[in-house]
Amino acid sequence: MAALIGFPAVVLFGVSVVGAPVAAVRATWTSLRPEAFVPRSRYPSPVVAGPRRPAHRGTHLRVTGAEDNWVKGARGEQAVGAALACTGLPVLHDRRLRQGSRANIDHVVVAADAVYVVDAKNITGSLVATGGTLRINGRDRDSLLQGVRLQARELEAALDRLGVAVPVRPMLCLTGSARPAGMQFVGGVLLTTPFSLASALTLPGPLAGDRRAAIADDLAWAFPPAVSD
C-alpha cells in the first residue's frame, strides 16, 4: 500500500487509526514528565549518521538461501528511519552504546515530552504480549525488552551526568509480520510499528525546538556513531 499511495499517506492513516492508544500512552507517561529541563552547554552540531551500511568487499552483497539476518535488520532500521524522518524531530541513528562495546542504539529521538530510544526489529511470525511477557512464535522474547530497557538506562545515566533532566522512554518498533496491531505496553516498553510510530513521538510537551536540538547535540557527543564513514 505504501508503494501505491506514498509512505507519508500511510503514516497519516496510521496516526488516525491509533488515536485512542495515543491517549492511553500519554496518560501512562504524563506522570513521568519532569517540571523543568536543565540544558548543558552546546556542542557543535553533530553529523548524524544514517542507518548502518554493510562493510563488505566488492560491489555486491551476497545473500544466499533465506534473507540474511543482517539484511533483514537493515531493512527494518531503514523502515523505521523513514517513519522518523516524517516527524521532523531531531533523530540520531546507529549510535554506539558505550566505549569499547559493539552494541549499538538504532535510533534516538528527542521529542517534545521525552527522549525516546527506538530499537527496530524485523521479525516474522505471530506476536503475543500479555502482562510483562513478550512471546513471538510461541517463544519467550523478553530479551528484546531487556535490551531496549538497558539502552534507555544508558541514556538516562548520560543525561544525568550532563545535567539534563528529561525522561528517557524505551520503544520497540517491530517492522516484520510479528507486530502489535497498534501500540501496546509490555514490561515498561512501548511496542509500535512504523505506522504508529509518529503518533507516539508527537505528544505535546515542554521541550521547544531549540531545546530539543541542544539535547540532541549533547547526546550526539555522548554517543558517537557506531560506524564511521
Task: Record the SSE blueprint.
Blueprint (H helix, E strand, L loop, with lengths): L1 H4 L1 H11 L1 H11 L39 H17 L5 E6 L7 E7 L4 E7 L5 E4 L2 E4 L2 E2 L1 H21 L5 E7 L9 E3 L2 E4 L4 H5 L7 H14 L7
Parallel strand pairs: 3-7, 7-9
Antiparallel strand pairs: 1-2, 2-3, 4-5, 5-6, 8-9
How would you describe what is shown here?
- The chain has one domain (2-45, 69-222).
- By secondary structure, the protein is an alpha+beta fold.
- It is globular and about 40 Å long.
- The strands form 2 sheets. It has a 6-stranded mixed β-sheet with strand order 1-2-3-7-9-8. A 3-stranded antiparallel β-sheet has the order 4-5-6, covered by helices on one side.
- It has helices at residues 2-5, 7-17, 19-29, 69-85, 142-162, 197-201, 209-222; strands at 91-96, 104-110, 115-121, 127-130, 133-136, 139-140, 168-174, 184-186, 189-192.
- A hairpin with a 2-residue loop joins strand 5 (133-136) and strand 6 (139-140).
- The two termini are 33 Å apart.
